[in-house]
Specification:
Elements: E1 8-12, E2 18-22, H1 26-33, E3 38-39, H2 42-55, H3 77-88, H4 91-96, H5 98-110, E4 115-117, H6 118-123, H7 125-135, H8 142-152, H9 157-180, H10 186-192, H11 202-215, H12 218-233, H13 237-240, H14 246-256, E5 266-268, E6 272-273, E7 279-280, E8 285-288, H15 297-300, H16 335-352, E9 357-358, E10 380-382
Parallel strand pairs: 2-8
Antiparallel strand pairs: 1-2, 3-5, 4-10, 5-8, 6-7, 9-10
Helix pairs in contact: 3-10, 5-7, 5-16, 8-9, 9-11, 12-14, 12-16
Bound molecules: protoporphyrin IX containing FE (HEM).
Amino acid sequence: ALARSGPVHTAELPNGLEVLVTTLGLDATRSLLNDSRLSKDAAGLRAAMQDQLARKGRPTDLSRIIGPSMLNTDPPHHRKLRALVSQAFTSRRVEALRPAVERTAAEMVAALPADADLIAGLAFPLPLAVICDLLGVPVEDRERLHEWTSAMMTERPELVVPASDAMVGYLAGLIEYKRDQPDDALLSGLVQAQVDGDRLTPEELLTTAILLIVAGHETTTGLIGNAAVALLATPGAWTALNTDTVGAAIEETARWDSPVRVTPHYRAVADIDLPGGGAIPEGAVVMISLGTAGRDQEVHGPTADWFDPTRAPASGNAALGHATFGHGVHYCLGHHLARIEARAALMALRERYPNARLAVDPADLERGDKVVTNTFATVPARLEP
Ligand code: HEM
């Protein structure tokens, strides 16, 4: 419905902030994601958001929430941060995780009861275990990280502030520990990374670690959970799932039921006219809808609103007719890892439970209440070998 109500509308977030949400077709979404008139700069964003909240009589300190990670930095500084993180987050390091991800997924699936919740038993814990393994977070601390991440994603200040304080304190300690006792996990890699003599500052290290945990967690839970539901609810789709078809099924899920509804905030630093009418005024805080971009009928034709796991890639390139991982300078750094995780989770479940089915009508499944992520709260399934 959003896609047809014009390309830009206003929404109020749970913290009282008014944002403009754009709902454009795929090409226009991509060009907006790559438009230098939309800034991510942390200081500018914070000021714009805090001014607005203060005017509404809801003064809020956002300094702990929007820090200078690469996601909240513009070029040219963004390039330095991304290069430093990419040096530690290489595709070789990510690809090397594949066997461990598959093993963890198989163990989690083996531990599922016959009446299982696919979110609590698989889609949620797998990405958390993977990102903790990758960073080198001790096993006993993972549950706490989950609670903080979850609270931060609600965008409710009373939950966000204590959770981010707790996470900041915890990770600052862990970074110090890794400085003294380096291991071969990513956090130690980030501590040591150097590009042209530059290193990450302590604040950048901290916000990067937080970004990796937050960005890599619920998003991937959403991709796994949304794919499981779509495949189990579509006649014949679960049976047809195999190592050759799973890649296309994952892309179709990303397109049709994007685990990221809208991007995190951007700030307009100039007026922007949108194709098809509508405009973004300078100073506006903007979120760009990714979910609607994947439903573009000009790209996907009259069946754009159907889930078809065999749909051929519309655009013939790696972007596959959706913008679910973003576009341009902030294109998701973890997209390859997310796809490895989704493939491992779905194939582990399919191999062990070819007769799996949803235990409730998919229309009755509840979605979480997050602004950015689009995930099911629970997915009850009946698992019979
Ligand atoms: C950026 C989506 C998984 C790390 C982004 C952006 C999107 C996105 C849309 C751009 C946001 C913007 O333009 O404001 C997703 C989805 C995922 C996923 C849908 C899972 C299905 C991951 C994972 C990691 C990760 C597993 C890391 C472990 C990042 C980072 C950025 C990012 C570091 C910031 C890149 C930059 O600013 O240059 N992601 N993501 N993501 N993502 Fe992901």
